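FIELD: query
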Amino acid sequence: MSSELKTSPKKRGTIVLVVSAVLFVAMLGGGYLLFKYMPNINGQDFLGEGEEAVSITIPEGASTRSIAEILQDNGIVESADFFTRTFDNSYSDKQLMAGIFEIKTKMSSQAAIEALLDPANIASFKFTVPEGKTVKQVIKIIAEASETSEKSVSQAMEKAKDTLPKSAEGNFEGWLFPSTYTFPRGQDLTGLFKLLINTTVSILEEHEVPEDQWQETLIKASIVQMEVPIKDFGKAARVIENRLTTDVTGHVLGMDSTVAYGLGISGLDLTVQQLDDPENPYNTRVLPGLPPGPISNPGEDAIAAVRN
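FIELD: result
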């Protein structure tokens, strides 16, 4: 009998499968390494997560190609072409954001894409709108915080006019809700004003104010906000209702704050002549009923006092 070892067909099949599997894994590993390092060998891509911090601006509506060129020009990626191909091949379902990014130089295209998709890398500014500020004052606050001209901020606000409810009749006063906000630098400030308006709408809805009473509620709340301290909001709201519904006062509110707003001055600077001037549409000392619009941007406490 021959001493040569014989392998059954079944075992030979198993060996072939094992060897094939090992070769397949080796090919995958080799392919991965080739994919990872070959671009750098060819001078197409940097390796790693980056080196020195740098700030870049991605404009609104920028294409992937234009973003790639910005990155290449700032030394963030080695090749705009390779960055674009990487994005198209692996991230085509994603949307790169606009804004000012804090990012690093010499990043791989994949690392750069991941950094641009992470909102944490967007530089932002923070500001607070106190209760009772007027639109002009809010514009100044945002301009200072965003390091933008007041003219540019005003232009951005005007583009948000279609967000205002019809009852506002294009008047932003009263609709810029007082709170603290954080907004990405470099993004269109129109989105910020839409946020302030929508926040006001949300507060009105939370207090179950009917939509057809939104503007009236804000007018009353803005007066309450400017007339008395918060502890007296409820009393001031009741005074407004009483004066509007009784004939004793001729439905005249008699509020100095509205007169001052109509003149664009402080209530402390009012003269007797100004208090008696019927040409001022906000002069509730002589004209009956509510003024034509809010006189400030009221906070939630003032809105709640009017509602209750």
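FIELD: remark
Residues 9-41 form the longest helix (33 residues).
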